[in-house]
Amino acid sequence: MPYTDWYKLLYAIKIMKIKSAFHSISYLQYPLMLLALFFSFRPYLNGFEYLQNHFDEIIIAYNNALIFAGLAISFSTLQDTNKTQNKLSKKIWENPKKGKKVIITLTLLTFTILTFGIFGFFISTKESLNELSFGIIVFGIGLIGFLKTGIEMFDTHRKDKNTNANTA
Questions:
Q1: Under a CB-based contact definition with an 8 Å cutoff, are residues 36 and 68 in contact?
Q2: How many CA atoms lie within 13 A of 44 on its CB side?
Q3: What is the pLDDT of residues 49-90, one digit of tens each?
Q4: CA separation for the pair 121, 141 (Å, rounded)
Q5: Is the CB of residue 82 less than 8 Å from the CB of residue 60?
Q6: Model confidence at 101: pLDDT above 80
Q7: Structural domain boundaries of the chain?
Q8: pLDDT digit string, tens, across residues 9-31
Q9: Do the beta carbons of residue 145 and residue 77 sit within 8 Å?
Q10: Residues 67, 138: contact at Cβ < 8 Å?
Q11: Fewer C-beta neighbours within 10 Å, C or N terminus of the chain?
Q12: Which candidate, 157, 115, 161, 165, places its Cα nearest to that of 140?
């Protein structure tokens, strides 16, 4: 690349705020979640009689659904933690008791899912269940990012920590 092309690239990066670019990328969570929803319903389109003879297709579809749900959750963690998305999340993150309960619940959920996925990955002898465990692990990794975002939201928005007396 000639010198002028590098200069143009650096200038474009300077103009485009990287933080806002990540916030924009976070909107990819919606098509990824739609893909996860598609994969979770796809096996049932052939009918229940078909599924009785092809149970492995359900496992493969659920594996794909878990992978895309984990990716969607990972992309959702790129959104701005200085803003709440709706009134319900604002009520949760501003209240110290509710926020702590949500953080504890997310922590327990995340590590339970990860433990279940890792346990299944190493214990399972069937290849299809081994693949499903991989999808559970990817979903759990997505939840780790979601937990981190929840902790940041709680630290940013809680009222007992962010009062005028504490900031002055």
A1: yes
A2: 6
A3: 877 888 888 889 999 999 999 999 999 888 877 776 778 777
A4: 14
A5: no
A6: yes
A7: 17-161
A8: 666 666 556 777 777 888 899 99
A9: yes
A10: yes
A11: C
A12: 115
- In the structure encoding, which two tokens stand for residue 150, read together? 């929840």
Which residue reads 């319903």 in tokens? Answer: 41
What number of helices (H) and strands (E) belong to the chain?
Answer: 9, 0
Q: Are 120 and 133 in contact (CB under 8 A)?
A: yes
Q: Which residues contact 51 (CB under 8 A, 6 or more apart)?
A: 43, 44, 57, 58
Cα–Cα distance, 161 to 167 (Å, whole number): 9
pTM: 0.77
CA 45 and chain centroid, separation? 27
CA distance 45 to 66: 19
Whether the CB-CB separation of 137 and 121 falls below 8 Å is answered with: yes
DSSP 16: S
Could you give the C-alpha distances from 63 to 36, 121, 161, in angstroms and in order? 9, 12, 41
Looking at the chain, how many residues does it have? Answer: 168
HSE of 120, CA atoms in CB hemisphere, 13 A: 20
CB 60 within 8 A of CB 128: yes
Rounded to the nearest 10 degrees, the angle between the axes of helix 29-41 and helix 55-76 is: 170
Q: Tell me the two tokens of residue 109.
A: 């959920």
Give the whole-angstrom CA distance, residue 53 versus residue 34. 27
